[in-house]
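Input structure tokens:
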């Protein structure tokens, strides 16, 4: 494999990987000397580049996993050395042409900074999800109402148990909806429509477990006379509600 390195501001090489290692040990190049080989998206300091071959790009020279970065364009994870940097953003090799094209055209690009969703946007998403769940709950209500009407002919107290079943079902439906949608897509239908999504503090995706915890955190936000929601208005710029504090999540624009 041919390596190139920077010597007195000039590109030098090619040299083999062994030679490069020898030069590093011999002090001819420093650990922070920029080196490059085919397959690397950009010139990389020698210390992080050596040992990271294309077939073994997720482990560094020490066998430790190397840092990974999320591509700002496709959102997939890549070893940092396989991405190029733009501002705070990193873009994978495959997305680089599209990303640069967007930059040229002046189209909005994701520069890696989280754009926290405004309260009104989040509120709209909550209302939309509320409407969706209301339709589902009404259907459930009709179905169970019908069942309880039949059951009540034989046993009038059955209505009470049916009410409990209905309540449990409504919570189960809402919890599954939120957990599965946010865990899989990062957003419920309401959030998708408002072009926002839930992420963890560094912009990464939310796991199913965290998503489920967040749903029950939301219950707590509601139970505190909505104070859990109201605090988001004063949390600048991240706009975290109580459930975002509890689960270390943020709501951002896609
Ligand atoms: Zn990409």
């Amino acid at each position: 494999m041919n390596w190139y390195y920077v010597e007195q501001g000039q590109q030098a090489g090619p040299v083999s990987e062994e030679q490069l290692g020898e030069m590093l040990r011999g002090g001819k190049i420093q650990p922070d000397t920029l080196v490059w080989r085919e397959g690397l998206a950009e010139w990389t300091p020698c210390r992080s580049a050596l040992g990271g071959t294309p077939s073994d790009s997720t482990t560094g020279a020490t066998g430790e996993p190397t840092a990974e970065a999320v591509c700002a364009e496709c959102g997939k994870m890549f070893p940092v050395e396989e991405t190029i940097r733009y501002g705070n953003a990193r873009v994978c090799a495959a997305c680089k042409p599209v990303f640069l094209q967007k930059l040229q055209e002046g189209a909005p690009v994701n520069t890696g900074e989280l754009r926290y969703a405004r309260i009104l946007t989040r509120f709209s998403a909550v209302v939309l999800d509320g409407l969706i769940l209301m339709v589902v709950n009404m259907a459930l209500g009709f179905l169970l109402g019908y069942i309880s009407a039949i059951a009540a002919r034989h046993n009038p107290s059955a209505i009470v148990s049916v009410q409990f079943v209905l309540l449990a079902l409504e919570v189960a439906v809402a919890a599954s909806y939120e957990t599965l949608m946010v865990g899989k897509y990062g957003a419920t239908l309401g959030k998708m429509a408002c072009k926002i999504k839930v992420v963890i503090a560094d912009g990464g995706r939310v796991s199913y477990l965290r998503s489920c915890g967040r749903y029950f955190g939301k219950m707590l936000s509601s139970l505190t006379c909505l104070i859990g929601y109201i605090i988001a208005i004063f949390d600048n710029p991240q706009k975290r509600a109580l459930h975002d504090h509890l689960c270390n999540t943020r709501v951002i624009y896609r």
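The CA atoms of residues 112 and 227 lie 31 Å apart. The chain has nine helices and ten strands.
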